[in-house]
């Protein structure tokens, strides 16, 4: 009885949304699987998104659950959590972490009016997400603060950051800095050759580089995205 | 005896996974190892065709998993190599007929009596792929020297990393040295530069591969072909031997002289 109240199931546009209540992870997971066993026909073939609240889940836990669901004919496609650990795990496993994708910058009415982005917070006091490895194709990192990558960002990988993006390596994927409208955000990389760059609502496809790679920084200058060698002349 | 489970996968289809499995299996078995290949491509099987064993299938992997036969009954013995076996895929079912834990159980059973268990993964990153990598001790990723195949290989490597699997090794298949020299094809260095994983084999493009798979006679049995040689080298490297890579880049005597001179 107590266990069934742990789980709330709701139909949403993308399938079923299961919200797990506060409980130790093994208990919550068992409760979910028991609920599914009780109505296998209802769940069969379902696309499931899971809201795990503040649970911090690592790869082993999330893959185990995904495989157990998969054996019951259920596809786990999204995991929503307030824990950054769980969010990163889910992103690395290729699961969605947002149910409704907000695209704030592109829907902003006018690119010249700075009122569209009311408070671009000072970027100094925000937190940064540390990614200590190469991001391979298909990985999507979304974070409200800055993102620092120690490694490469390969083609097919995406970073969407509220603040700036620093890549200590080769940047060849897609990056969007200042995704919530922060026009002060910058993008830095040791070797800057991305598929596409965005800062706030400005989009650029950098030209093919000739010659040796060098550290560069991209920022908005007079409304245009400009790359300059780093350290730059303005220093 | 504790066998090693090796899964061959790629992300992209048509890069030569099945050919690689058949040839590496043949090469390992001709060195006297006990080898079983498992076709993980349920619903689209073709490892049996490449190995020339299609007409001997009685039971398949789904029969084993669903308990209609013993594992031994589904293992088809090769025509030429008595220590080589194949567990074929079912053609009339789909990937959901088998689960990752079924694969782990099956491989644990096979480990006891085999040296090598090779799994041919289907293309894609969905259920069939997860079935194939679940029991893997080692993963070999096959790619071609072209951007789309490399991009998919990168994706697969990322998924394996996320699942905390052991680091995979790379087979670069269908390399055309002439095209590389002209700058029309990615070179081994270009591919390595992006993927950054250990390269275990470089297989040149060879039209004999197609002839061999149509005849159901894997190329690694053939002493002369360069592709066959490359697959035999992969098998030896799996066994822990240090084997130098075949020199594919320079074929003319003059090129080789230039290279030798440059080394000094």
Main sheet record of chain B: 8 strands, mixed
**Annotated CATH homologous superfamily of chain B:** P-loop containing nucleotide triphosphate hydrolases
* Structural class designation of chain A: alpha/beta
Low-confidence stretches of chain B: none
Global geometry of chain B? globular
Low-confidence stretches of chain A: 101-123
Largest interface: A-B, 23 and 22 residues
Please bin the fraction of helical residues of chain B.
40-55%
The share of residues in extended strands of chain B comes to 15-25%
Order of helices and strands of chain A: EEHHEHEHHEEEEEEEEEEE
What's the number of structural domains of chain A? 2
The CATH class label of chain B is Alpha Beta
CATH topology of chain B: Rossmann fold
The order of strands across the largest sheet of chain A is 5-7-9-11-14-15
Rg from Cα of chain B: 18 Å
* Intertermini distance of chain B: 47 Å
Radius of gyration of chain A: 21 Å
CATH architecture of the largest domain in chain A: 3 Solenoid
Please describe what this structure looks like.
The complex is a heterodimer of chains A (235) and B (264). By secondary structure, chain A is an alpha/beta fold. Chain A has two domains: 3-92, Cell-division inhibitor MinC, N-terminal domain (Transcription Regulator spoIIAA, 2-Layer Sandwich), CATH 3.30.750.50; 116-229, Pectate Lyase C-like (3 Solenoid), CATH 2.160.20.70. In chain A, 19% of the residues lie in helices and 32% in strands. Chain A has helices spanning 25-38, 40-43, 59-71, 84-92, 104-107, and strands spanning 7-12, 15-20, 47-51, 75-80, 128-131, 140-143, 146-150, 158-161, 165-171, 174-177, 187-192, 196-199, 202-204, 216-221, 224-229. In chain A, the strands form three sheets. A six-stranded mixed beta sheet of chain A has the order 5-7-9-11-14-15, with no helix packed on it. In chain A, strands 6-8-10-12-13 form a five-stranded mixed beta sheet. In chain A, strands 1-2-3-4 form a four-stranded mixed beta sheet. Chain A starts with 6 loop residues before the first strand and ends in a 6-residue tail after the last strand. Residues 101-123 of chain A have low confidence and may be disordered. Chain B is of the alpha/beta class and 264 residues long. Chain B has one domain (4-263): P-loop containing nucleotide triphosphate hydrolases (Rossmann fold). Chain B has twelve helices and eight strands. Chain B has an eight-stranded mixed beta sheet with strand order 3-4-2-5-1-6-7-8, with helices on both faces. In chain B, a hairpin with a 6-residue loop joins strand 3 and strand 4 (84-87). The longest helix of chain B has 16 residues, at 147-162. Chain B is globular, with a radius of gyration of 18 Å. The N and C termini of chain B lie far apart (47 Å). Chain A binds chain B through residues 59-60, 63, 67, 70-71, 73, 89, 92-94, 133-139, 152, 154-157, and chain B through 96, 99-101, 125, 127, 130, 134, 147, 151-152, 154-155, 157-159, 161-164, 194, 196.
């Amino acid at each position: 009885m107590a266990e069934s109240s742990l789980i709330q199931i709701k139909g949403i546009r993308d399938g079923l949304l299961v919200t797990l209540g506060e409980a130790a992870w093994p208990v919550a997971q068992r409760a979910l699987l028991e609920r599914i066993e009780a109505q296998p026909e209802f769940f069969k073939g379902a696309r499931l998104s899971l809201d795990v609240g503040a649970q911090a889940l690592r790869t082993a836990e999330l893959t185990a659950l995904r495989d157990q669901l998969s054996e019951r004919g259920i596809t786990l496609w999204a995991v929503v959590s307030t824990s950054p650990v769980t969010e990163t795990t889910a992103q690395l496993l290729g699961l969605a972490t947002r149910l409704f994708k907000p695209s704030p910058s592109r829907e902003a009415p006018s690119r010249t009016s700075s009122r569209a982005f009311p408070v671009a917070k000072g970027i100094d006091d925000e937190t940064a997400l540390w990614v200590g490895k190469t991001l391979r194709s298909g990985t999507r990192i979304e974070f409200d603060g800055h993102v620092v990558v120690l490694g490469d960002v390969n083609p097919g990988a995406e970073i969407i950051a509220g603040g700036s993006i620093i890549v200590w390596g080769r940047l060849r994927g897609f990056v969007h800095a200042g995704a919530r409208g922060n026009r002060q955000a910058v993008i830095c990389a040791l070797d800057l050759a991305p598929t596409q760059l965005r800062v706030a609502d400005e989009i650029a496809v950098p030209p093919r580089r000739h010659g040796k790679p060098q550290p560069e920084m991209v920022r908005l200058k007079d409304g245009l995205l400009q790359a300059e060698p780093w350290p730059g002349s303005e220093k | 005896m504790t066998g090693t489970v090796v899964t061959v996968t790629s992300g992209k289809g048509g890069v030569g996974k099945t050919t690689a499995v058949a040839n590496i299996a043949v090469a390992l078995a001709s060195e006297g190892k006990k080898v079983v290949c498992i076709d993980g491509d349920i619903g689209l099987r073709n490892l049996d065709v490449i190995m020339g064993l299609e007409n001997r299938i009685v039971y398949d992997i789904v029969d084993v998993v669903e308990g209609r036969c013993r594992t031994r009954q589904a293992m088809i013995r090769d025509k030429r190599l008595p220590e080589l076996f194949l567990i074929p895929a079912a053609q009339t079912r789909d990937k959901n007929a088998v689960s990752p834990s079924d694969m782990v159980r099956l491989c644990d059973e096979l480990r006891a009596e085999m040296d090598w268990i090779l799994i041919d993964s289907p293309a894609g990153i969905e259920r069939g792929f997860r079935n194939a990598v679940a029991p893997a001790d080692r993963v070999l990723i096959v790619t071609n020297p072209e951007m789309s195949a490399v991009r998919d290989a990168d994706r697969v490597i990322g998924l394996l990393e996320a699942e905390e699997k052991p680091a995979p090794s790379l087979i670069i298949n269908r390399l055309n040295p002439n095209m590389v020299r002209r700058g029309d094809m990615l070179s081994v260095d270009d591919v390595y530069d992006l993927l950054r994983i250990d390269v275990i084999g470089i297989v040149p493009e060879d039209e004999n591969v197609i002839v061999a798979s149509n005849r159901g006679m894997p190329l690694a049995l053939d002493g002369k072909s360069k592709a066959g040689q490359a697959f035999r080298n992969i098998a030896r490297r799996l066994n822990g031997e240090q084997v130098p890579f075949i020199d594919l880049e320079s074929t003319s005597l003059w090129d080789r002289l230039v290279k030798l001179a440059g080394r000094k």
